[in-house]
Amino acid sequence: MSTNRVVDPATQTIPPEQAYPVGSPDHDHLAPPLPVGFEEQADELISHYPVSKRSATLPLLHLWQETFGYISDDGIEWIGHKLGLQPINILELVTFYPMFRQHPAGKIQIRVCRTLSCAMAGSYDLCNHFRQKCGTTENEVHGLEISPDGKYSVEFVECIASCGTAPVIMINDDFHENVTIKRADELLEKYR
Amino acid sequence: MENPFNHDSPPADAPLLNVQVDGVWMQFPRGLNAVEVARRAQKFIPHYCYHPKLSISGNCRMCLIELGMPKVDHDRKPILGADGKAEISWMPKPQIGCATLIAEGMGIRTTSPVVEECRKGVMEFLLINHPLDCPICDQAGECKLQEYSVQYGNEGSRFTDDKVKKPKRVDIGERIVLDDERCIMCSRCIRFSKEMVHDDVLGFIDRGSHTTLAVHPGKRLDNNYSLNTVDICPVGALTSKDFRFQMRVWFLKETKSICTGCATGCNTIVGSRENLVYRLTPRGNEAVNSEWMCDQGRLGFHYIHSPERLTEPMAVAAAPPGGGSVPEKSYVPWSELIPQLAAKLKALRPEQIAIIASGRLTNEEAFLLSEIRRTLGGEDVLCDIVPREGEADGILRSADLNPNTRGVELFGLSQGGKTLGQIRHGVDTGRIEALLVLHENLVEEAGWPLSSIQRVKLLVVQSLLQTATTELADFVLPGASFAEKRGSMINGAGRLQRLNKAIAVPGHAMDDWQILLQLKSALGGGNGLHTIEEVFKAMAEATPILAGLSLSKIGDLGLQLQFSSSTPITRPQPSPHATV
What we know:
The structure holds 2 protein chains of 2 kinds. In chain A, 38% of the residues lie in helices and 11% in strands. In chain A, strands 2-3-4-1-5-6 form a 6-stranded mixed beta sheet, with helices on one face. Chain B is an alpha+beta fold. The two termini of chain B are 14 Å apart. Among the domains of chain B are: 96 residues, Ubiquitin-like (UB roll) (Roll); 300 residues, 3-Layer(aba) Sandwich (Rossmann fold), CATH 3.40.50.740. Chain B is elongated. At the A-B interface, helix 1 and helix 5 of A face strand 7, strand 9 and strand 10 of B.
């Protein structure tokens, strides 16, 4: 019988980074240079909320994501610092709203509606088709899938308000109705 | 201790309101919520997220009650019932008790079919994703989820799907491990960190059915009050690394005591089993520490079970005539050691003796030591303590790290460290031949060089642990730790508080007051003192500020002593509505 003390894996603790896979995995922890006018824009947004700066958190997150494409750890730190909040207060929001990303999305973002009318009109098949065509793999808890070359990202979204012309999708900021599989292939050609 | 919230203690001048609790009209001060009103009416409203000292978040829904306000007629006048009291119009839906401040004429029902049904429903929801790993959970036995399951829950669950998986065994801090699956998302820990310690590192991420308590990546829950989150966690989500898997809580004997880590003297419960102390937890006392204690104080007890612990009284045999090697110390029974020591001390003149007392002594020990000093020569016997300076943190920690500086001062044993230099000079010049050192380490803590200590002809050290000082001692008197003795101390704010004996002293070690009492008797004859109560009584008779007191009169929450205004008070007076 071995007398070596066996470390029971059940009592081994794990570090938080492993427990909560949030944040950008290959993040280099260098603050990106802020574009000219970014800080002024942020200050302008904050000025809309004279009673509590905290209310500017969501507008600032939108601003950051529009500017940089996703919300990095630096973004969370920067916004927290700007509003006199702790980074955890910002992270709580980022992880709550599905529209905020902690990873870059594809260059071409495909959003497929999955709410009732679209779901009944075949949006699940449609989404799978896009995923297969673009070769995306699951990446985030909120279901954003991204192709290995980073060109395409495919995700389900909730109702985008055109139930009469289901299934509907958005590619980047363009709206497309009655998207059949055939139409999908045409669209992919167009956005190549 | 100033709490940001005190939902359980409204201002003393708050007007009284008439409230009907389960059909009985009673009066309560304005500012109380329904949970506190029920508590004062000897009822109990179960709750998880509500804590009287934290902000109200109202998220657990366990404190649902039925609520009503007086019925009014067309002229907004209350409609009176047959008993002359206002009739109550009950709301159709239940309300949470914690966020309901009482109002004039309000009625609450803490037990009714609706309320009972609500509690069952909440319990069923809370247990849906709970791992039910009670057999290996540290919280088992003091878990609110377990207790309320028994009292208010269902016997089974209707849930048939897969439970949500969440991170387990997450190392979120130096002293804390988190199990997210056990968490019921009450947010007490988040609010504590933010409101009490201003260290806002905890939060809920992925809110929704996967709500997860987390520290921000790269941050840690490492503040000096982090272990309080383990206490207030109603379930076993936050566990103390120090206590994790050490002992089932129901085996622990709980002894009320005080923390001896600094001059604040936080009230504690010592959890021990079979002469081993497993943990210290804070005990509520609004005049001192409210419900909290610092991590340093809480974990600073392990030395009492150190392998370095002294357990045998030892003395050096008489040096062989004509010099030779330094003789070894050997075990000498107390019955022989005390008379030997007394004889050696009696042979010396007062100015040849000095005492290094300690701010860690209890009042009783300090009193007996002052009596010994009087027998040996009074003021001519130099005496002082080793001051310990720390940093006050504005929450609980005091800058004075000696727990009983004020008590020792009361018996004239302390000069605040000013006489230490004089004593050392006396030792160095050979004027002082005998040095009595009590619970102090001259080498490591007072910073004396070994060469000075070696000059002492008769070094008597009463100590817990083997140190460089005990190595050089001619007499080693093993004493008792804070968990092994009874006695009283006076904290920095002048509050007299009690230590209680949780475990037995190890080996042949002896309670310090008994050692000192025996030495006193051997030096000056017996005086009819046999128990700690008698020592306290003698001390109270000799000390005006303690007049009329006894150990039992101090009570579990201590007594505020009225020092004259010239006496420095190092801590602010407790708030006016604090319990005295």
